[in-house]
Amino acid sequence: MKIRSLLTLVGLAIGFALPTFATENKEINFSGTHYWSGTPKVFQIDPDRIILEMEIYGVRVNDSNDGPFNGASVYIATLHYENRAHNKTGNPVDPVVASRNYEVWTDKDGDKVIWELTDDASGKPSGTARLIDGTGKYTGWQGTMEYTLQFPKPFPEGTARGICREVVKIVAPAETK
After folding, report:
1. Is pTM, for the whole model, over 0.85?
2. For the domain that residue 55 is a member of, what is the CATH number?
3. What pLDDT digit, counting tens, does each position of 59-83 carry?
4. Is residue 6 part of a domain?
5. What is the bridge-based pairing of β-strands 96-106 and 26-38?
């Protein structure tokens, strides 16, 4: 019994004497603006229903004008369904809308984070996203984003333009030594 207690104490002493090999997770919070454009392709199902797909390209700028993803290239793949005839509330004026959107930010070194954008059930030009994957130095990162959209008049006709305000909260994994 005494030997077991002695070994336990020796183990604890060694554990406290060894250096720590990991630091705490790092929280990164920032906001910014993402400017984008694209050319939508619309498939008309019938007078009330459409499917729209669009590849969006843009660039984002952090409000602080520095930090992660300031000046990052942005690519968004969008698939959108709209039914103007029926909706969940029974009001034919409000369309049923469903979207699947994935957004990729590429930094100056070529490392990327991938976001999954969620639908806003109210149909408003806003929503949330969750960081689902990362490459290079962003491997293992997790995060959330809230965004709001503005749609300036497109030019030329048949294109789309947008300004997206983003508030981002990221947790980077602990660094190991």
Report:
1. no
2. 2.40.160
3. 999 999 998 899 999 999 999 888 8
4. no
5. unpaired
